[in-house]
Specification:
The chain is an alpha/beta fold. 27% of the residues lie in helices and 24% in strands. The protein has one domain: Spore Coat Polysaccharide Biosynthesis Protein SpsA, Chain A, CATH 3.90.550.10. The strands form three sheets. The chain has a seven-stranded mixed beta sheet with strand order 5-4-1-6-10-7-11, sandwiched between helices. A two-stranded antiparallel ribbon has the order 2-3. Strands 8-9 form a two-stranded antiparallel sheet. The protein is globular.
């Protein structure tokens, strides 16, 4: 059986929104949302919170393992691929599942479905994306329509935007290609709720509204 490992990289020194990963989001620390989500996925055999600060332990439910990372990875100029490289070096696995605290509304069933595509062997990786079907521009000109023959918005060629909700990849995708998305990826389309990404105070204010709305919807079921 293949070894499937998840990791949630997290730092507590945030630049644009200080302390964002532990701020109360609808009464619950932001980090707890993805912690609870990952904890629901039984297909993952080892589940790590990858952080340099042990105080994150107070937010972690049983089932997740704290793995201390080097404080050098907390620098504002550090790139995501550097963090992945260190984790892959520290923890051996066949398949890695990377998720982020800043996208708290990612659903367990979405991750589980994407993971099954990689486990099946049909795809070497999977990533989350949203479909944008609107009038898009790039480099000063329309990207997906002709201004002399403007189609209805529903007839526009869709553009797909990669999100950071999750990346799932086989070990060799990273060790051989140095990438988190391989040559035969599965694109998992997510809705606008799962795509909410918290980086700024404005993002957090919007996430508060979404969290309350989703909580109201759950209570109605």
């Amino acid at each position: 059986m293949e070894k499937i490992v998840s990791f949630i990289p997290i730092k507590l020194n945030n630049q644009r929104l200080p302390g964002k990963n532990t701020l109360l989001l609808d009464g619950k620390p932001t980090c707890e949302y993805i912690f609870e989500t990952i904890n629901q996925i039984d297909e993952i055999s080892e589940k790590y919170v990858y952080c340099s600060d042990e105080s994150i332990r107070q937010y972690m439910p049983s089932g997740l393992t704290f793995l201390k990372r080097d404080t050098c990875l907390d620098g504002f100029e550090v790139k995501g691929l550097e963090i992945i490289a260190r984790f892959v070096q520290d923890v051996d696995a066949d398949i890695y599942v990377l998720t982020h605290v800043t996208q708290p509304f990612t659903r367990a069933e979405t991750i589980r479905s994407a993971l099954s595509q990689v486990v099946s062997g049909k795809h070497d990786s999977a990533f989350s994306a949203v479909m944008l079907q609107d009038y898009m521009w790039m480099d000063g000109k329309p990207l997906n329509y002709d201004m002399r023959n403007i189609p209805r918005s529903q007839d526009l060629a869709p553009i797909y935007m990669e999100t950071g909700a999750f990346f799932i990849f086989r070990r060799e995708v990273f060790t051989e290609l140095g990438q988190r998305i391989g040559r035969t990826p599965y694109m998992a389309l997510i809705d606008q709720f799962e795509a909410v990404d918290i980086d700024t105070p404005e993002d957090f204010a919007f996430a508060q509204v979404v969290a309350r709305y989703l909580d109201e919807q759950r209570k109605k079921r």
